[in-house]
Amino acid sequence: MAETPSFKREMLATLPSLRAFAVSLTGRHDKADDLVQDTIMKAWAKQESFEMGTNIKAWLFTILRNEFYSQMRKRGREVQDSDGVFTERLSVHPSQYGAMDLEDFKKALDSLPADQREAVILIGASGFSYEEAAEICDCAIGTMKSRVSRARVRLQELLDINGESDYGPDAVSAQVTSHPHSA
C-alpha cells in the first residue's frame, strides 16, 4: 500500500472542513464529531475506490453527507433547532458588533431549509464549485444554483441587507473611524 501515506495525509487535511460541514448538518458538535469519525472510517475502508489525484474533499463530503442522511433515515426523524439550543451553543456572548452580526447570521442560516443551507455552505463556505456541490448532493447543477440563489435571497431578507452600505461598521462607528480627531 504505497499510496496509503499520501491518502492519509490528504484525508487528514480535510478534517476541519469536514467537521464544519458536519456541524452544519447535525446542529451539534458531539454529533458532528461522531459523523466525521464514521466518515473517516468508511473512507479508510474504501480507500482503494478513491482515485489519487482527484478531489478527495468532494469524495469525503459525499461520504459524510450520505452517512448523515442514512443515519437520519434510520432514526426516522429530522434534526431541528426549534428551541434554539444549537444556535446558542455555537458562540459565546458577543462582545462587539462583529460577534453580534455573526450570531445573527448563524440564526438566519439555521432557519434556511436544509437543502438551501447545505448548498450555500458547500458553495460559500467550503469553496466547492457548483459542479462539485451538485455531485456531492446528487442533483443537477441548475438545482444547486437555484438553491444557492434562494438561500442568498432569503439570508438577505432575514438579515435586512439591502445593499453594500449594510456591510461594515454602523453609521456611528463609521463616523468615528473616518474623521480624524482635531487636536
From TrEMBL:
RNA polymerase sigma factor 70 region 4 type domain span: 103-155
Assigned keywords, A-Z: DNA-binding, Sigma factor, Transcription, Transcription regulation
Transcription keyword on record: yes
GO molecular function: DNA binding; sigma factor activity
Gene Ontology process terms (BP): DNA-templated transcription initiation
PANTHER family in UniProt: RNA POLYMERASE ECF-TYPE SIGMA FACTO, RNA POLYMERASE SIGMA FACTOR RFAY-RELATED
Protein name: RNA polymerase sigma factor
